[in-house]
Amino acid sequence: MSVNLLCFVSSQSDMGFLTNSLFPHRADKGLIQKRNSHRFCSLRTHPCTGSESLGNKVPLLSTMAAASSAGEMAMSSEEMVYNVVMKQAALVNRQLAATEVKPGVDAAAVPGSLSLLKEAYARCGEICAEYAKTFYLGTLLMTPERRRAIWAIYVWCRRTDELVDGPNALHITPIALDRWEARLEDLFRGSPFDMLDAALADTVKKFPVDIQPFKDMIEGMRMDLRKSRYKNFDELYLYCYYVAGTVGLISVPVMGIAPESLATTESVYNAALALGIANQLTNILRDVGEDAHRGRIYLPQDEMAQAGLSEEDIFCGKVTDKWRNFMKKQIKRARMLFDEAEKGVEELNASSRWPVWASLLLYRKILDEIEANDYNNFTKRAYVSKAKKFIALPVAYVRSLAGPPTTRSSRPNQIHHPSK
Ligand SMILES: CC(C)=CCC/C(C)=C/CC/C(C)=C/CC/C(C)=C/[C@@H]1[C@@H](COP(=O)(O)OP(=O)(O)O)[C@]1(C)CC/C=C(\C)CC/C=C(\C)CCC=C(C)C
Ligand SMILES: [Mn+2]
Question: Which parts of the chain span the membrane according to its record (predicted)?
Answer without folding.
Answer: 236-258
